[in-house]
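User: I'm putting together a teaching handout on how sequence relates to shape, and I'd like one worked example. Could you take MBOAT family protein from Hominimerdicola aceti, show the sequence you're using, and then write out its predicted structure as tokens right after it?

Assistant: Happy to. First the sequence, then the structure tokens directly below it.
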Amino acid sequence: MVFADLFFLYFFLPVCLICYFITRSTAIRNAVLVVFSLIFYAWGEPVWVSILIVSSLVDYINGRVIEKHPEGWQAKAALAWSLVFNLGVLFGFKYTAFFVENLNNWFGLGIPVPNIVLPIGISFYTFQTISYTVDCYWGKVKPQKNFGRFLLYVSMFPQLVAGPIVRYSVIGEEINERKTTAKDISDGFSRIILGLGKKVIIANNLSTIVTALFGSASNGYENIKTLSVAGTWLGAILVGLWYYFDFSGYSDIAIGLGRIFGFHFDENFKYPFICKTISEFWQRWHISLSSFFRDYVLYLPIFGKRRKYGGLFLVWFCTGLWHGASWNFVFWGLYYGMFIFFEMLIGKKRMKKMPVPLAHIYTKLVIFIGFGIFYFENLGSLGTFFKALVGANGNKLTDTVTQHLFMNNIWLFAAAVLFTMPVIPKIKEKALSAKGTAYFMQSAGILCNAAILVLSSVLLVNTTNNPFLYFRF
């Protein structure tokens, strides 16, 4: 099941809310959320819900062992088992075929490549349970004693299948006891509608244009071979905007749903395209993932010692590989690691002295070329993409297809660029600071939300291009 779906919006969610709010008991509300979360997950993949439950049980037990023997060998064994089990499950489902394919290519072997279906959300919930066990071992959180509450933490449907990666330290107390105010419900629904608009109105339309320019994986990205320089750059920019509105839209919906149920998830995106350095970009983009690798991988001892730059490239290798079992994702991760390495060598003070226009040109070039690397999973097509960026494929500077696509969708592009910047928060801030505007702003907000919800619902009626991008990770 996905959020941007009429069944979810007008049946599943209302029924869930009714069942949730007919009682004031936190225990019963937790049970309602667990039941609806398991239904939500099992709707598309009933078999793999068992992996989710087993994973939750394993780390629930690990947490209890650590609590009982905090200084003993048992705690170390529980931590080790958590890492082996979770990473083993993730590797088995996500990387086995990739590993076998590369063994065959490198050594001329003929090992059959298994066709393993990747359970939705496994990359997210395995990292959540790992972070819980590690934090228990480090003494940052108290282990949860009730398995039902822990299962709620892992399975909660707002963040289950595509994040953000919610740490137990953020919502642990709210699982035990929480309240939902009228403001929580109002802000939560507003955030859901905002995310829905990002996804349905902007991201879905951008994805159609990207496919028209670059082609898709199913056709081998054939379009890139004949695309002009201008078309290639336009496509790379639109890939970045598409991914941003798709994933940040999902995160907005997840955060809004959590707020309605009394949970306060951390922000996952903070207007990343306004960054002036690549390091800043990753402090604003997919924050829950980048902070996970920073806190749990960056300072791992490499060859017996903590190595500053070795840890950096290990983090970015893992970041790339986490996104998919394909070499382009590994290259994408190391590509960003390289630029962050250079920025570390230059130093924060010198980077801040860079003229603002030059800083924006530098970061946007790096970011949008990076999205091209991310998009083309076929390495042959990726090589063609790099040639097309500079016209080395012999194609024209521009072409009529690119021109027509640009002119026919110029208002969509303008809106997409505009909403990557904190325009709406600035308008709200200035309007609310003026006297006598509170009622007007409240009325305007209700009207905007209603318009976005109606338009999104209409677009969803006959849509065939709707799944969230990060489901496949």
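A couple of points you could highlight for students: The first strand starts at residue 301 and ends at 302. The chain is about 70% helix and 0% strand.
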